[in-house]
Write a structure and sequence with these properties.
heterodimer, A: mainly alpha, two-stranded antiparallel ribbon, 9 helices, 69% helix, globular, B: alpha/beta, Oxidized Rhodanese, domain 1, 2 domains, two-stranded parallel ribbon, elongated
Chain lengths: 195, 211
């Protein structure tokens, strides 16, 4: 049997919800343990004094990427059955800008705001409330927003397809960028602490 | 007892080692071995449930049919020149590696119908049930939706359909023409099949109008 285990019929819809809850809980716990529930710690990233967020998130990306690549190569994971979200260039760029502004102003992103709220932080609660208000407003106005939401559709495509490079080469490039980024981040943090 | 620094260094070295080897071990995607139930496919083809007409596809797009995925299997230049609204481009080899949801309604098209029909066979073999192709391809779309020639004086029974096709054409920035001699076509007109010059002329006309 190869993963995804849901597709392989290992558990049904209810089982999948239980697994999703367990993985979500574990993810939140890891974020909290890494200090991601603190808006001050997250905001420090924008002042280049504490780049924990960058390190944690990029580590997660590299771990997941290497895991997906090698598990696929070893036949444990059927990558062809892993859902790839569709790309909509302009709406997603716009979403990224809104996300970035919200992140810089609030000091938390959607995942970390949930972690902050669970640990009883007021700013976390406010951001979660704002996030769900935004989801509600978007849902109510979706009919008007839909043409923009579905504009510049590129379908489900991955970095190897976009760059016209073999998957393994892209893996190597991203790990190289990550390791160089971690070195730069450590250097920036040391410089900030010396100042 | 290993220090935090040594653990981080070990993890970094492990990641680097796995990444350095990655380009030399080939694709992580499993080879797609699919089987075809030839009898079932033959029945689907005989019942004409393998394809949609351009007008049907236009109606689905206009209605914003849930989970509709329109896939253009032509080359990037042809796609950049013109494509059906909401379509995404995928080459045939990318098509078989793209995971679709079981609930997706997938409509494939090419210039004529051949490549899209091949893609239809691949996806059916991979187990997708709601797959169709545009039998006359983009040429049919241009001829039947963008520049349809409709009867000027349709019979009472055809009036609603003529008005619907004209409205669809205008919705997609097309220009329906009305002619006394025109008939309401349901099948792919033989004049447009594989007619690159016809499609180029229609696209050129649309560009002049600024579409």
């Amino acid at each position: 049997m190869s993963a995804p285990l849901f597709d392989a019929g290992l558990f049904g819809d209810r089982g999948a919800l239980v697994v999703a809850l367990a993985i979500g809980g574990a993810f939140g716990w890891c974020l909290e343990r890494a200090g991601m529930g603190s808006a001050r710690k997250l905001a420090a990233q924008f002042y280049l004094t504490d780049l924990t967020v960058f390190k944690v998130m990029f580590s997660a990306i590299v771990t997941a990427m290497l895991g997906a690549f090698w598990l696929g190569r070893l036949g444990v994971l059927d990558l062809g059955r892993v859902y790839v979200p569709e790309t909509y260039v302009v709406p997603q760029l716009m979403g990224g800008v809104v996300f970035g502004i919200g992140f810089a102003l609030g000091g938390l992103c959607p995942g970390t705001s949930c972690v902050a709220a669970v640990t009883g932080r007021g700013d976390g609660f406010m951001l979660v409330a704002g996030m769900f208000s935004g989801v509600l407003v978007t849902g109510l106005w979706f009919r008007d927003l839909q043409p923009f939401y579905e504009s510049s559709a590129r379908g489900p495509f991955t970095l190897p397809q976009a760059l016209h490079l073999p998957y393994g080469v892209v893996v190597l490039m991203i790990v190289a960028v990550a390791l160089a980024g971690f070195q730069c981040a450590t250097w920036l943090e040391r410089r900030a602490h010396r100042a | 007892m290993p220090t935090e620094r040594s653990v981080v260094r070990l993890l970094a070295i492990s990641a680097a080692a796995l990444a350095v080897v990655a380009p030399f071990v080939g694709s992580p995607y499993a080879a797609q071995h699919a089987s075809i139930d030839v009898t079932e496919l033959a029945r689907v083809v005989a019942r004409e449930e393998d394809h949609v007409t351009a007008v049907e596809l236009a109606q689905w797009i206009k209605e914003r049919r849930p989970d509709l995925r329109v896939i253009d299997v032509r080359d990037p230049d042809a796609f950049a020149t013109y494509h059906i609204p909401t379509a995404a481009r995928l080459s045939l080899d990318s098509l078989v590696e793209t995971p679709f949801r079981p609930s997706d309604t997938i409509v494939l098209y090419s210039d004529g119908g051949a490549h899209a029909a091949q893609g239809w066979t691949f996806l059916r073999a991979l187990g997708y049930r709601r797959v169709f192709f545009l039998r006359g391809g983009l040429n049919e779309w241009l001829e039947m939706v963008i520049s349809p020639t409709l009867p000027e004086h349709p019979s009472e029974s055809q009036r609603a359909e003529v008005e619907n096709v004209a409205a669809l054409s205008r919705y997609f920035a097309g220009t329906p023409k009305f002619s006394v001699t025109a008939r309401l076509e349901h099948a792919v007109p033989t004049t447009v099949r594989d007619s690159a010059s016809t499609s180029a002329a229609i696209i050129a006309r649309m560009r002049k109008r600024g579409c």
